[in-house]
Amino acid sequence: MEIDSQKNLQRKQCSYEILDEQYKIQKETYKGQQYSHIYFVRLHLMRTILHSLVSKWKPHLPVRTVLELEEGKECVIVGTLYKHMKLKPTILDEYSKERSVTPLVKPHNFMHPDDYLVLEDDSGRVKLSGAVLLPSVYATGIIVALHGKETGVGDFFVDDILEAGLPPQIERPVIPNEDKYVVFVSGLSIGSSSSNPLQFQLLVDHITGHLGDEKEQGIAAQIVHVVIAGNSVEIPRGLLNGQHLSAKDQTKLTEPLKELDILLNQLAAGLSVDIMPGPSDPANFSLPQQPLHRCLFPGSSAYNTFRSCTNPHCFELDNFRFLGTSGQNADDLDKYSEAKDKLEFMERTLRWRHLAPTAPNTLGCYPFTDRDPFLIESCPHVYFIGNQDKFDTRLIKGSEGQMVRLIAIPRFCENGVAVMLNLRNLDCHILSFETEFS
Amino acid sequence: MNKGSARKSRPPPQNTSPAPPAKHQALSQEEDFVDEDVFLDENLLDEDALILRDIEERQALASRLSKWTRPPLSQEYVSQSKSIVFQQLEIDYVIGESHRELLPNLSGPAAILRIFGVTREGHSVCCHVHGFEPYFYISCPPGMGPDDISLFHQTLEARMKEMNRNSKAPSFVRRIELVQKRSIMYYQQQTSQSFLKIVVALPTMVASCRGILDRGIQIDGFGMKSFMTYESNVLFALRFMIDCNVVGGNWIEVPVGKYKKTVRNLSYCQLEFDCLYSDLISHAPEGEFSKMAPFRILSFDIECAGRKGHFPEPTKDPVIQVANLVTLQGEDQPFIRNVMTLNSCSPIAGVDVLSFDTEREVLLAWRDLIREVDPDIIIGYNICKFDLPYLIERAEALKIAEFPILGRIRNSKVRVKDTTFSSRQLGTRESKEITVEGRVQFDLLQAMQRDYKLSSYSLNSVSSHFLSEQKEDVHHSIISDLQNGNAETRRRLAVYCLKDAYLPQRLLDKLMFIYNYVEMARVTGVPISFLLSRGQSIKVLSQLLRKAKQKNLVIPNAKQAGSDQGTYEGATVLEARAGFYEKPIATLDFASLYPSIMMAYNLCYCTLVTPEDVRKLNLPPEHFNKTPSGEIFVKPNLQKGILPEILEELLTARKRAKADLKEAKDPFEKAVLDGRQLALKISANSVYGFTGATVGQLPCLEISSSVTSYGRQMIEHTKKLVEDKFTTLGGYEHNAEVIYGDTDSVMVQFGVPSVEAAMILGREAADYISGTFTKPIKLEFEKVYYPYLLISKKRYAGLFWTNPNKFDKMDTKGIETVRRDNCLLVKNLVNECLHRILIDRDVPGAVQYVKNTISDLLMNRVDLSLLVITKGLTKTGDDYEVKAAHVELAERMRKRDAATAPNVGDRVPYVIIKAAKGAKAYEKSEDPIYVLENSIPIDPQYYLENQMSKPLLRIFEPILKNASKELLHGSHTRSIFISTPSNSGIMKFAKKQLTCIGCKALLSKADHTLCAHCKGREAELYCKAVENVSDLEMVFGRLWTQCQECQGSLHQDVLCTSRDCPIFYRRKKAQKDMAEAKQLLERWNF
């Protein structure tokens, strides 16, 4: 495409710092460790935070462990919630006696009215009762402080709940007086039947300034960074069963990757690009997912503007802190708890100060022994999740003046929507690409 | 109840320093019913001395326990102004002095019956019943007059005295009465004969008196004479129950004024009184009296700290924890939960933790708990063979003489006996019999083994089967470590122990054991404790005796000398025409065939005519039936049989119970009625078996062989009628064909293509054929199989239809889906094949599935847990005559690590591994964990040939031509992958060098991942490797979080080593595979 332009548009610049170190798994190996360590670390760190908050919240009440509970005595206990769920699928179902005649329909959500919560600390467990604490809101793995007392039947009757709340935020940088945009896109799903090659090409052309008039190009020049939040390709998994592949199948397998590499090449030539792995990408399954290997992108990996990142992914642009995932954390909460929208799940994870509380229980996770990388110690300014049904965004404020922009990024392959975030005011809008001609 | 022992030898009365509880070694066959007299005072300890000792120390404990005592008595009970109505659970007797007030005319020792039970309000009752005397009958020799009888009395008394020289009893034979009765055996024309009823002083004298009469006695005027005795083998308590119309678990009323409060309480019961047996009112279990009293059910479990490599032994290893749950009958949550621990234990929410410093205190605290809580029923898992004997033997080893006072009688110690129980149905079992007076023991393990056929009876496996609940299984070698840790680790153990006490209670509720067993006791009239400890025959005998008493009949004690009566031809099956039937097969069933035959042809002891009598009596042919086996039985107009009458009552009662069940709304009432109809069904079916038990109480092969011969005739007859009537000549569309017939059912292919049409014809055939049978024999049409795979006799599979719209289920008989000695792979394979063949109707799909599975097996892609075979280790290696795979393995494992090696009683899991050529089968077994850790190759050929081939061919031969060639030798068996063992000799000398991940070519030093040739395929090969890691990660996560779920803790490491758990090996394998796959992936990141 030839562009006749009088003015030479200059792409805006911004500083970038990657903060993925904690999500990298390098030295860690599977040596027979179990999941108890990660819960232990999580409880240990969160308890310190909660204890300091309790002394402000209910200073008159003693803080006890589950073991020290005495019938009828009011106190505060801190521990990990465990949700007992009737419908929760288990691997033991594979071994059920009778093969059921009709295949089980996979429900979207495994909630049941009989579900109940249990609080566990390193000393023991106690069943929770009372109307204050709704099982539908919580899921296994969250750490809270509870005010209440033990009843005669051995339950802990909850009167009040304390969550850790939004973590402290690094000071907001000086607000730039010019527009700088960050583009978020997810679910390109190149190689799947629903992906339209033209749509993504249009997006790339738009970002790189090969599209539209001067005004549009002017806006494109203000895009400083692109984040691809997971599920960029879809590979036919049936082919990967350990058998030798025929030449035809080899092509089928690598074709989507090649296509992606070509497009990324175009992007990376113009501006900095972060690519995160998602559930359908050729990456490991459990969180944190490790960066997609360079060998998959022989072309684009030559650019230093191209970064293959972990999922979750954390970085700073002009001192704005960004944190996001390819969506697994919110999707899993959606299966085991309830909220009015996905943004609410995101907000909760911030308040619980944990990016993925359901890992490892229902969300695959590496068995860390000495840390829990998903704890959110510092509140991001922008928090995003990829691969959602629709675009959604909200600005939330914390009790200590924290401001967080929440973004649910839709799947691009379904309706051609990407998200633009303006660093100047943290406003969001969508970029929509239609390729249908009517 | 006192039962089982033939000898009576007891230690002399003890006062201050009591000896350990008496142990009797006795072989009690289920058919030997012998009373054992227990003398009051003998088992008693000196009360005050013991109670006063360390009373202060225990006061704190006592106050904790006292809040659990039973509700206090109301004023009406205290003032004795209220009739006492209670549900009895246990009846036994004891020898004591005759009650002076109630029986002013008697003196000396007498048998006093004790009835234990619970009132509606939950008060415990101990009722001493006086005046009931043991007796039996002999036939009166002709010509014996009243004078002769008194002479006979004196002679018998003298002989008895001679035999029981040491006895203090003033008299033995109380009296002899002349009565008119009739023997149940054989049809007789006269209505009655003279019998002598011999009443003796004590129950055990029945047996010794019988001995004298059996051997013969010299009577003046009659010479030396030996007598056949009648009803001399009836246990005293059962005799009492029969004569007073008391059935097991029913309600008994003692009217106001008819009972006297005991002067000195002998028991711990709240209501204890004396009364006369004639004053008791026994209520039939109907209406208000069909309900259950609020019994207290104690479920408990103990933990012992065993030494490494040994199963705990009571002489050496301490009891460290006892968990107890007490539940009121009918409530769904226990009201007491506690655990007693040796050494400190951190608290557990909702549970009373009682910690003690010495084992002695733990044991005594448990005893005190029993006394205070006063449970009516004690349950647990394997308590009769392990927990209870262990506690008692442990107390003995620690010299805690006052421990075994667990019964309801003050200071009376429990009695322990070793018994061997054998029965045709259950085989021979060794067990301990512990008598806890006044409390019923209900061992869930025994109940499970008796009522359910399962592949494993471990508590874990039973719970996962019935409750869909897995439990953590802590290996006994870890228990000691937990105990020796701190309060936290002991708490861990306590939680585990509590779960083991909780699961039996859940099983009891879920399987409605209380309802079913109480109803069974009520229907058959035996005490509840008989139901678990004895075989089937006592139940039938009890009913027979009750009925005989009504009819004025007496039952001979025909002591049979083994099975010299020969055998008879059993049930028949029609030749099975094996094949895969794709047209509906209608099944015609005889409803309760054997009971119906006995009723239809009036088959009974008392209607059987002996061959001599046939000639002598010269009966007209219209008055008798000659059975196909050649026996003669008279028709009901001459003599109605007792067995048919019992059966009729049972079946009518069942019909009524079923009708009531439909009406019933209250869930408890429903449970009772359902238990009842089940009990009635089982009882009706066991009558036939009773007559055929050659070593039984009253075998009569004439009856049983007649029953089976009629049965055979019915099946043949049905086949003939169906094939004659349903023909194209008879106006039907197709010729019907009987393809198979079993004991009580006939499978017919009417040739019609639809289920609905087959159902119509099936119904027509059933009605038509039923019309030709004597009532109440009835052929019923119940179900259609479509499609139907008939393999051979007693082996088939099919879809089961009872309505034409939708099939109910897949039904299989005799096919490898539950066999124990097959590995899971076979079971799954067979299930899946049947599913594809029968439900999906996809034979090629099934064939493909088999081929894939075989290929996976050969390529070493099968989950190891699917290949594990388990066998129980019943004795040590030396005791086995033939070398067996699992025994050899156990020996080898012991050499590796004695601590974790399986012990006698454990089940040994193993897989078959590749071994040197010519290795014996038993040398090829190996521990699955060892196999995993050392990557030892399994032997796929063994699994293919010894495990899979037979079941597969059975299924596929009727369907597929050349099944063997097609399935077992096709092209899918060509490529084989065997892993290299990491510990084999040669590998130690091999030098490891990196090979290309793509083509296995050796790599030069410069490359780490791929050779130059494969570089172009890097993306593809990386995808493969990462996909493998991704799959494993997913499985790893799901497996290990499941284990956290089962153990009920997120913050503690999973310890469980339950090899019964389907994911145990997979979990281990996932860990190992994960590490390897990860390592491979790392090679990309150099």
Question: Could you describe the 3D structure shown?
Answer:
The complex is a heterodimer of chains A (438) and B (1086). Chain A has 438 residues and is of the alpha/beta class. Chain A folds into two domains: 16-28 and 169-237 and 252-432, Purple Acid Phosphatase, chain A, domain 2 (4-Layer Sandwich), CATH 3.60.21; 58-90 and 108-162, OB fold (Dihydrolipoamide Acetyltransferase, E2P), CATH 2.40.50.430. In chain A, helix 2 (197-208) runs parallel beside helix 4 (247-270). Chain A has helices at 36-57, 197-208, 214-221, 247-270, 328-336, 342-351, 412-415; strands at 16-18, 63-64, 75-84, 116-120, 125-129, 143-150, 156-162, 181-185, 223-229, 272-276, 306-308, 313-317, 320-325, 382-388, 392-397, 403-410, 417-422, 427-432. The longest helix of chain A is centred in the middle third of the chain and has 24 residues, at 247-270. Residues 98-105 of chain A have low confidence and may be disordered. Chain B is α+β, with helices and mostly antiparallel strands. Chain B has a seven-stranded mixed sheet, with no helix packed on it. In chain B, strands 24, 25, 29, 30, 31, 32 and 33 form a seven-stranded antiparallel sheet that branches. In chain B, strands 18-17-16-15-19-22 form a six-stranded mixed sheet, sandwiched between helices. The radius of gyration of chain B is 34 Å and the shape is globular. At the A-B interface, helix 1, strand 5 and helix 4 of A face helix 22, helix 28 and helix 29 of B.
Number of helices of chain B: 29
Helical content of chain A (DSSP H or I, runs of 4+): 10-25%
Report the oligomer.
heterodimer
The CATH topology of the largest domain in chain A comes to Purple Acid Phosphatase, chain A, domain 2
Mean of all residue-level pLDDT scores of chain A: 84
Average of the residue pLDDT scores of chain B:
81
Spatial separation of the terminal alpha carbons of chain A = 24 Å
Q: How would the global form of chain A be characterised?
A: globular
Count of separate structural domains of chain A:
2
Strand-pairing-aware structural class of chain B: alpha+beta
**Most extensive chain-chain interface:** A-B, 65 and 61 residues
Poorly predicted spans of chain A: 98-105
